[in-house]
Amino acid sequence: MTLAVSRHAALTSLALAIAAPSAFAQATTDTFDPVVVTANRYPQHLSEVLSDAQTISSEDIARSGASSVVDLLQKQRGIEVARNGGPGTAASVFIRGANSNQNIVLVDGVRIGSSTLGTANWSALPLSSIDHIEIVYGPLSTMYGADAMGGVIQIFTKKGDGPARFSAAAGYGSNNTRQVEAQVSGATGGYNSFSYSLAAGKEKSSGYSASKLGASSFTYNPDKDGYDKENVSGQIGYQMAKGHQVGMAFLNSKLEAQYDAGPGYDARSNQKLENISVFTRNEFLPNWTSELRYAEARDKSGDDSAAASWGKSQIDTKQTDLTWQNDIRIGRDNLQLLAGYRDEDVTSSSTPEVTGGRNTKSFAVSYNLVRGAHLASISGRRDDSSAFGNHNTGSIAYGYRFTNALRATASYGTSFRAPTFNELYYPGYGLATNQPERGRNAEIGLRYDDGVSKLSANYYHNKITDLLVNTTPCPDPTFTGTFGCAYNVNKALLEGLTIAGSRKFGDFNVQANIDLQDPRDETKDKQLVRRAKRHASFAADYSLGALTTGAEWQLSGKRFENAANTTILGGYGLVNLYATYQFNPDWSVLARWNNIAGKDYELARFYATPGSKFFVGVRYGMK
Length: 623
Known about the structure:
The chain has five helices and 34 strands. It has helices at residues 3-22, 58-64, 69-73, 141-144, 421-425; strands at residues 35-36, 44-45, 52-56, 79-83, 91-95, 103-107, 110-112, 130-137, 151-157, 165-173, 177-187, 194-208, 225-241, 244-259, 267-285, 288-305, 311-330, 333-348, 356-371, 374-385, 389-401, 406-417, 437-449, 453-471, 485-505, 508-521, 526-527, 534-544, 547-556, 559-560, 568-569, 572-582, 587-594, 613-621. Its main location: membrane.
């Protein structure tokens, strides 16, 4: 897809999006309007959020039958994934063509990830602990600082409300996959209310070979590569008086997974995620809410390949965040003042070692305006890093509601990605002089939602400069390594159009999304690795009393495995079927058959993906 074609497609599709719903824009004013938190760091109805955003509800997660967070995200608009084998192996998530380290992942407001790699440990995230997920597309550095260039994904764990209740689920599927989970939760009423939730889960699978025949003799091993994951999460909250609340949330997940490191090697990785946060939220005045939050996130990555040549290793990241956020309501407007301090520490037992620390002080201000049919926002932020100095970002957005159902938006924002510890300090690769990548994103969009039909179209143009890439030979005269180095040398353009829609026809629902994009390294004039120019997803379901049946069709165009675009990863199409049956208000059963045609495809060269898989589960939940 050339640049000219993509712009023509954008204009044509946006015109169609305006024309199609306008004829029945006044059909109803009772729109389904979920509340999202991630876009502007405070609760807003989706109809007032100017960023492109979506939510994945707890019902969506239960119906998906997904075995991992990565499998769930693979079906969402604007998202592509890559994985080196089965659910327990290393994975990457690309938002709007942005690299995996150009996105931020939050768990209950706590930022997670490895400071050496710059990415979240997707495989260790437990799907069983998740209540819902919010995805916000586009740059959000003014809200969250470094690395929010492509978007932000926030995961919310299960919390308690209402009377005490217990829920549990168990399932079995292909590759001897077993899953169990349970939760107890509840809340008391009144001003001195107390809420609580405790959830735990365990997954285990015999798996399948991570690598495929054709891989190098160094990595290929035909054995099965299974995984064992267990997790516990919880939240407690106490309202001391009206408008004054304290609380805590935590997540602890442990993953032991096998992977391929050559014939005869029983290679295993041990991953741990340990997050905890405490907060106090106080409404000091009727229009002023202040929140002080302290959070710690630990990402522990160990390799127990004692038989392999590199032996054992351990790399741990500890992130500490202290945030003070003040929201001042001015009529329907909101003024937000934010101050934050983030500390990153890395310890390593590997050879060569990558150890050290850095901190960032942040100050931000934003204003969100609502005036009848007009919506607007403006924000600015300054980050002062001990590693790379000061960096300023800003954004501005405007929206206009033609009707209660139809809205147009336009925005412009800047962002940046901080170099990882590897890109700065890894011996023979990193350079301490490397600077942040910089992004400038402009986009326009349309959104229609009358409670029955939904349609959105968003065109974006995200220009990235100072792109850090592996450059051989290294241009820096002080570099002493044998091979290439990480260096700020390239430019990239992430340009595309995302169209999504859904429609209810009584008991029959249909939904679809398609991404037409051109994620390109402009310096080399090559398509970015493992990202397609076209990918899409279609789904339909039908409810007949207690029974719901559905089908999904996932599509992706060809991708390239290497930066030179000489090794092709073929396009693919997957068809999935599922059915749920609600025996009574408390009991339900799910059956799911993924990739029914047994399509052989690759998300990474010579790494296997699941063939035809089934899963059956039963769920109990007190109402």
